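[Automated response] Your request has been received and processed.

Submitted sequence:
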Amino acid sequence: MANFFSDNKDLQFHLQHPAMRKIVELKERGFAEKDLYDYAPQNFDDAMDSYRRVLEIAGEVCGDVIAPNAEGVDHEGPRVVNDHVEYASGTVQNMKAIVDAGLSGLTLPRKYDGLNFPLVCFVMANEMVARADAGFENIWGLQDCAETLNEFASEEIKQKFLPWVSAGATCAMDLTEPDAGSDLGAVMLKATWSEEKQTWLLNGVKRFITNGDGDVSLVLARTEEGTADARGLSMLVYDKRDGGVKVRRIENKLGIKGSPTCELVFTNAPAQLVGDRKMGLIKYVMSLMNAARLGIGAQSVGTCEAAYREALKYAHERAQFGKPIIRFAAISEMLSNMKAKLQGARALLYETTRFVEIYKQYTHISHERSLEAEERQEMKFYTRLADGFTPLVKLFSSEYANQLAYDAIQIHGGSGFMKDYPCERIYRDARIMNIYEGTSQLQVVAAINAVTKGTFMEQIERYAAETYCECMQPVVAKLKELTAKFAEMIERVESGDKEKPGFKDFHARRLVETAGHIIITYLLARQAGECEDYTNSARVFVKLAEGKISEAHTYVMNSALDDVDLFKAVEQEC
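Generated structure:
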């Protein structure tokens, strides 16, 4: 029997991070519910034991059910029947296994029949599901939409929808439209209040909606007549049982084929307002997107894990010139680089998740009571880190998913191009990850402020001030050199932008990626002091980081101000 949790020492390592004690205390409010629910933990050790047990169950479902179904689901795919989605037979089996195992409503409060687990556990489960089948992760992972309801909806709405999600209801976030992709401020689906029916009615079209026929849908819609920008948009929740929405078609995609990506037609579909009017994009979608970035981060890391394992297995099995190909330097180097990127992306994912978890818990607590001055400062501190790190983890993990999937096929050689091996499906699945929920280019736009406002540099300095084991001293010394180059790049770009507006935007990706390479290397170096398994990856990754940063540094420092105009010339082409 395969178990995607117990066979992954890296996941177990991150579950034991020292910050978990603080996270559990915040999540459990000092274990206030231990006498109210028989499954609520009595103390920290009891909570950690529960997390491990449930993650082992999740790992077993992933290894024994979801992974074996992945190829069949990819081949069969979902279809439209009577204007609604009908999942592939393997997806139906997956859903049943997940629900039977009690893995729905993982992070929701117990009063809504949830398990009240930390976000860290949900992200781990997401990663394991994605390793098994990245397409199915889209369906199961979207239950994090319920967290937006938990944070912003009325108690009446929570009571209606959250226990349903805990029982296994599927979710969707209906944002994109044919003329509003990344520019969500251009959304035009109309929400009109009906005095007769005492409800909002939705009319319009949504496109590229992941799991679009979900049971519970969060819909971004225009509630304010005569508006054409973000200030006219609100968030509403739609119940599939109420009708009014038809699936026009399911997109025929390159990958993640088991996940239905739908075009939806709303015709007087009844819906309820979530939170305040006119705050749909400004407040609620931003919360949704942060969660989605973590979700894609987990999906990407799970895909990295799957690609690396397939490549490693094949390299041991495939013999050429009388020996396994893993014994050839070119192949072993590729695998070492793949492992370093995998562990680096995972380190960044869980560091970011911890930042998000802490600020989210303080937010929830602030709705229950006034925060102490120290708590308010902590919430502000972790919010700032989360805002910077969330797009960073989405950028790096999704790009690495593509790189590792590419390398896995390369290691398989001609066989990797055939449908006989899973790496072909993994390669197709990975391609969407640096596109949806904000392309890599948009993640740079979201993260560049963390460079120019000092968030990344301040955190790098905190990492530099920590104590590292003796074997990591050469790595730390190199990181200090690379940080000095990063500071030079920032100064050069900021001064250049004052003289030539657009100079910062031109070099934004080089700056953001430099920050990421330094941060990831520090995280791996820190982990190497706690577990020898990370020593080699830290040493490999710092070499990769040095190469990338040296290239970026040379480009930035030798860039003329009018280089911006050379690339703007493309805009004039027809």
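Summary generated for your ticket: The chain has a mean pLDDT of 96. The longest helix spans residues 329-368.
If you did not submit this request, please reply to this message.
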